[in-house]
Amino acid sequence: MREEEQPSKKEQRRQQIIAGALKLFARKGFYTTTIPDIARSLGMSAGNLYNYFRSKELLAQEILRSVSSYLGRRIRYVNESDLPTREKIRSIVGLYFETALREPEMIDFFLRIYLSNREVFREGCEGMVCVNEFVTEIMIFFDEGVARGDLRNQEFFSAFGLFMGYLGGMVFLGGEQMLPKPLPEYVDEVSENIYRALKTPEAS
Amino acid sequence: MREEEQPSKKEQRRQQIIAGALKLFARKGFYTTTIPDIARSLGMSAGNLYNYFRSKELLAQEILRSVSSYLGRRIRYVNESDLPTREKIRSIVGLYFETALREPEMIDFFLRIYLSNREVFREGCEGMVCVNEFVTEIMIFFDEGVARGDLRNQEFFSAFGLFMGYLGGMVFLGGEQMLPKPLPEYVDEVSENIYRALKTPEAS
Amino acid sequence: MREEEQPSKKEQRRQQIIAGALKLFARKGFYTTTIPDIARSLGMSAGNLYNYFRSKELLAQEILRSVSSYLGRRIRYVNESDLPTREKIRSIVGLYFETALREPEMIDFFLRIYLSNREVFREGCEGMVCVNEFVTEIMIFFDEGVARGDLRNQEFFSAFGLFMGYLGGMVFLGGEQMLPKPLPEYVDEVSENIYRALKTPEAS
Amino acid sequence: MREEEQPSKKEQRRQQIIAGALKLFARKGFYTTTIPDIARSLGMSAGNLYNYFRSKELLAQEILRSVSSYLGRRIRYVNESDLPTREKIRSIVGLYFETALREPEMIDFFLRIYLSNREVFREGCEGMVCVNEFVTEIMIFFDEGVARGDLRNQEFFSAFGLFMGYLGGMVFLGGEQMLPKPLPEYVDEVSENIYRALKTPEAS
DNA sequence: GATGAATGAGCTTTCATTCAT
DNA sequence: AATGAATGAAAGCTCATTCAT
Fold it and tell me: Residue B4 pLDDT > 70, yes or no?
């Protein structure tokens, strides 16, 4: 007895388009990636793409949801593990940097497309609607750390800004070839800095 | 005896264009701001604008240099003061958030135009060429903190990523109306988090 | 003993398509109505529609024939009655205005689709081929009026232009909300004007 | 001392575009005439056309105004003459048919573009806004005829529908090659029919 | 320096029609 | 008969940039 439905042919194609467009958007930007670009990279006609997504904006929004869902899922595994808080930070930083290296399009889409082309997401992704799954998991991580007495109890967004801004900043510097070492080698330092910033004084 | 050259008529107009274009780019994005938009906002013709800047990209690069120079200058004042390291952090965070509030176009240009439309700055702003002045001052701040024994001696970019990523993240959250309090009220928490992240264990 | 052939399943579906497409064309125009629009309104697929009509143009031509046939039939009843000429005019004007009110798509198709998108009917409806039944009945009405001595003997198309142009004009004005009164209240005035225009001097 | 301003270069070009587009629209219809078509017929680029008219719809609306103004002006001369009512009808019918023959695009635009593509004129030409000058002159003609006791006093739109519907109908039939004689030869019959339809019983 | 008409390339999107299933 | 994914052609429109004036 199968737990999951077999995805339909059409749904599979949708996913292919999302993956292909994600790559192009992340690499070249929203406005410099054209619909024909995307279609060509998938070996389909531009017109046909509109049978799957009614506009370029809607496509970008679906991608955002998809990326948020993927990253959220990965963080959930960390949250569900029984690592100590300090190690959870390391894990999250690690998976973030690793993703940035192995599937850079995901993180780049977050940093470059979502954060910067607000007008594209204004209608349809208000507030955190499309980025919900990701933010929720960070929130869970933080709340549990506080509950355990490992992290100082401060406003969530102060901690969230630190966490995400920091990671984003490092990935950006890496992408700009401005880091002397490869990104993953910063996991220790970065996690340490985050932990120190957020931990309670008594925590080691 | 004049210290500075009187800026020529043409140079003044250039500065006006930079200021006007900065506002539009920051508000609407690079690709969604048109040259006619900029010209109109300055009461001049689109054609004439090309007498001052040879292309839209070059204009954006000039703006970047100008913003970097402005922010660098403001941080230099902090560096040149004899505040303790902890207070310097507070000052820098404070001026950053204040700028984000009072002249949001500067910070927004950094976050939204520069960080995200890499192709625009690829040729002409390689590496840090155009953000030199800004980065240099952060570096000076950091090196002095280390020299004084206040900050742990770690790789600069680890600290830089934290500092700038964090501030950028907070401004972004503020811009998205996701912060419960106005941005300046986060100065304490944010500075404290940064200080804790970077300080030597013995420092108070 | 059956008088009429039972229409085949396929023929029934054809009629449904004609009726549905008529409505859409009349309401939105030929070029602004798409084949998918029509298919959707009938709960069928766009592809399948092509099993019934080989092109959008051919569909429009079939509709025209169908409308002409319907209106021709209604006028025939009037012609076959033994009303005096003056009353026949009233009846025809009345049924035209009534149709325009109750089934506006018919008249609108005539006025807006047929009269204006000539290129659509150029090949396949040359001359009067597709509006034959309708024109014929008007012609019969006119010839009989002349034969009875009620109407002046003039060239048919002079009279036809008056009759049809006038009625079309009134319906158009009504549709544009430019008439102070509802269309049917103009039956008297309009019939009177037509009668006066066409009658022989001695007729009352 | 000149009474009229010399039209600017730009205004002249606008007029050329209006004239050129009028021809194409009238000949081929609104949707089957493309902006590139129009531009090509004027030896200019499609892009440049948008420096004169901000959209295809707006262009069509300007054309409508222009046609209405032209026809209105010609009817005004008739109204200002001291011909008897009967002769005025002849004159108006004559100039209408003559225009339909010599500059068929004007009348065709009225009949085919304006009357049938309502959605194009919905916003911008509500009610009679764009067709004002023309309708006004017909109204003046009619009111004067009534005032002189030549025409029966009936609701204006009853008479207007007759007048314009009839003329439009005849031009349509002519355009469809359905009239045995050339259009101008119908002037007598048509004027006579109109006059009879509208005149007071005592008028000869 | 200044204007703005002009260009040309390209973009998003639509749609009639086909065809494998 | 029926579906709907797929195509290809084209349309309306925008815009950075140029250039004659």
Answer: no
